Amino acid sequence: MKKNIALMRGDYSSPEIVAQAVRVLDKIAEKYGHEFVYTDIAMGGNAIDKYGDPFPDHELEKCLASDSVLLGAVGGPKWDHLPGDQRPEKGLLKMRGGMKLFANTRPAKIWPQLASASPLKEEIVAKGIDFVVLRELTGGIYFGEHRTEETECEGKTEKRSVDIMTYTEHEIERIGRVAFETAMKRGKKLCSVDKANVLDSSRLWRSVMHRVKEDYPEVEYSDMLVDNCAMQICRDPSQFDVIVTENMFGDILTDEASEITGSIGMVPSSSLGATTCGVYEPIHGSAPDLAGKDIINPIACILSAAMMLRYSFDMPAEADDIESAVSRVLDAGKRTADIMSEGMECLSCSGMGNAILAEL
Questions:
Q1: Catalytic residues, which ones?
Q2: What is the pLDDT of residue 171?
C-alpha cells in the first residue's frame, strides 16, 4: 500500500524525534510491503524564518493533498517577541481550521515499566491509569474574537482585553458523537466535562450532550465540572474511561493527564475531522534546551506514527508491531534521560530509535 505522509519536522529539538519516527515508518514499510512517500511541510518557527508566515496557504495545500500528517512541536523563545498573529502557534490554529480537525484524542495510559515514575501515590497508580481525553479542537475561546482596547475607568484610560468563547450546537454534537463512539469501543463509559454552573457555552454543551446520549443507551454517561475533573484525575484516574470536553478545558486537562503517566515524552496524540487525513503528534513541546544534544525522548513521536497507521491508514497489525517493540525495549531496561531510573540503561534519542528498530 502506498501512502503520502506530510512531515512537519517542527522547531528546536523536534526534527530529532521526527527523524526517528520516519526510520520506524521506513522499517514498517519494508517489513509489510508498503511504500511511504514523504513531503516536507514548513509550519511554525521554521516557516516564519523561511516565508515570514507561520503557515502559508501553499503549505496547507500540501497537507490537504496528503494521506496524513506527522507533526513535530513548533515554537520557542526565538519567536516569542513576535505579535500574537505572527507567532508559530498561530500556524497550529490555521492548520486545525484549514484541515477541519475538530477532534483531538490523547491517551493517558501508564506503561507498567514506568509506574514508579508517576507523581501519584503508589496505591493510586496500582488501581490503573488508562483513559482517553477527547478535546474539541476548532471552537471555543481559542477561535473566538480576541481584542485589546482602551477604555475609560474612574476617569482614567486603561487597557481592556476581551476573549470570546463561542460554541454552536453542531460543533458540540459532532465531538460528542466521536466521544460516544470511542466509548463504545472501550469501556462504554463517558464523562463530559464543562463549567455549566457559570458559562452559557457550557450549559449549551451539556444540553447537547444529554440529547446525543439518548442514541447511546449502552454508554454510562456522567457530567463533571472542570475544576472537579482536574482534582479527580489526580485523586482517582481509574474512574475514567473516556472524557470529552471543549477546547481550552481539554488543553489543560490533557497536559495534566499526561503528567500523571510519568513522562510527557511517552504520550502521542491524534487530531481528526470528517476524513481519515489527520495530524499525529507527540504532546510535548519543542524542548529548546535539548535541541542538538541527541537526548530528547522520541517514543511519543514514534507512538504517534503508530496511531497514524492505526487510525488513518487502517494498519492495526503494523501499529501493534510498533507498540509491542516499544514495550519490549522498556522491558529490557532501556530508557531515555527523562524516564531514567536506577539500574536502567540510558540511551540517546537516536539510540532509542536504534533499540526500537532492532525489536522490529
A1: 142, 195, 227, 251, 255
A2: 97
